[in-house]
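Note to self: user wants both folds in one dump. Writing first protein now.
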Amino acid sequence: MANMSLEKIKMPEQAPDVRNKNFEEVAMGYTAEMAMEEATRCPNCKTQIQPPKKALEMAGIPENPGKLYWQGAGCDQCFHSGYRGRIGVFEVMLIQEELRRCILEGADRTRFLEAARRASQYVPMLEHAQKLVEEGVSTVDEVIRTLLAL
């Protein structure tokens, strides 16, 4: 399995002031990639659960009454952990023209992230992890464990 790393890149409330730098420096300095490994639910011992309201809240998953989620109960195949294997949770942002303009103009975080979604199909790491939970690949507990450590 490929070795994954985690880059902790925190977005400031306002993009950094780069007006005194040339365009090439801006373009070269703000391409960001993040990756994280998350355990996958064991397919052999999967059971349906209704996570506690607080767990859903911590994982950023909207409460949907009656919605059941998957979790591993633990078996010989997963050494009674409920997890078997790993999957990457990624966040990649490609800096395109619209994002370069946001950086140069000192755009606020909201405008920058909206531009990132439009320009480079940017999906935040938390949303990617939540999708894996919705698909039954990972668990609410695993999202909390891995992403709240950021």
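First done. Writing the second protein, which came from a different request thread.
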Amino acid sequence: MKFIIGRTIVAAGVFSLLALPALAQIGSEDDSGTVNVTVLEALTITAPNLTFEGLFVANTAITDTILGNVSVTGQNNEAVVLTIDQPAITLTNGADNMAVTMTVTGVNPVTLSELGSGTIEIQAALAAQTPTLSGLYTGTYTVTIDYQDQEQGT
């Protein structure tokens, strides 16, 4: 009987020695990181009213170009990008119309100043074929301003 107890104790002792390294590896580790978000100032935009100032005569071909500045305010020192939503617009006078093409001609994107303001120049190019009837032709255009995505460049 002593022999069996001794053998059991020896076997248990060997088991304990083998199990110690395994128990040491079972523990857990912790690490932490941070989550950051930057909230930028809301963008505001003021698009200019553009008026062709030339003297245009009815029933003649008309071409003219005018420039205007779109004013932007937002987060200082951040880059913004201006988009003209529909570059080809139509000026109407009742049933008559003329075509105007809108383009961005200034620096785009532009980095807002230390005070969070900037301007981007746009152009309206008028091209009307004959016959052009007399009257006031009007239309609207829409511009959109967004912060430039620093990771993708737009």
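Dump finished. Worth passing along: The radius of gyration is 36 Å.
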